Amino acid sequence: VTVDAIYLEFYGLREAPFDITPDPRFVFLSERHRDALAHLVYGIGQGGSGGFVQLTGEVGTGKTTLSRLLLGQLPERTRVALVLNPRQSPVELLESIADELRLDIEGARGSAKALVDRLNHYLLDAYAQGLRVVLIVDEAQQLPVEALEQIRLLTNLETPTQKLLQIILIGQPELREGLARSEVRQLAQRIMLDRAELRQLAQRVTARYHLMPLDEDETEAYLRHRLAVAGATRHPFTRLAMRCLHRRSGGVPRLINVIAERALLAGYVADELQVGERLVEHAADEVLGVTGRRRSRGALLAAALVAVV
Asked: CA 118 to CA 116: how far, in whole Å?
């Protein structure tokens, strides 16, 4: 018998409720998530007019989840290029876009002009067929300045009456604030949307939305939703425990998941069917790196194995 199986059975669950692996069944849309998704859909449908749509939010607030939901809500006659690795040179970025759109770029690789010409031809053909073409760039705060400028130049591809490419930039607050951290996160330099050479790009952002963390009530609703999907017949967290979960996680869904999972495991090890504030505090200390307050996850697992034996 596995530790996970015992842990789930102990709390009457069919499956793990706080797995951080994306699963559409567990998606919880707060009011602000619905608003953000509406902004994205509007930007693609009618509001963008070929400009940029910008979605920002802290790590773990659900931006990538929203982008996946967006893909499922796009009109049927829409073609999408989704760029997940933005740390590319301008030419590499153009090649990635072309590959996503399944363009034949044989003989054009390595040449920005040739790639743009192929892309322009594709966009004109799509426009003639009544298709809408969308470029989605995830983690856009990591775009090098030169690549971001190349994206801006793509908005110049147009007919006399309409832009041919709708662009959605999804990223962390640095994208909105004009800050980009170095890889070691020790230095920051102003290199994003407010740099002088990119002012034109900033002016073309036609819709902006900053995704905030969940509030206390939303955190409780989030917990109840995930537990219900996982098959819970009773709620294992006390009211104080849920408040503590919100306070220690800051309302960030990814942190809520990790802390809640640790707290349930700790509750199982301690043979406590009701997870209280104390267990959540200890789990949060573990997750957030507070030392001297609680055993590591390895210690918890070891204790759980002993309990199983």
From this structure: 5
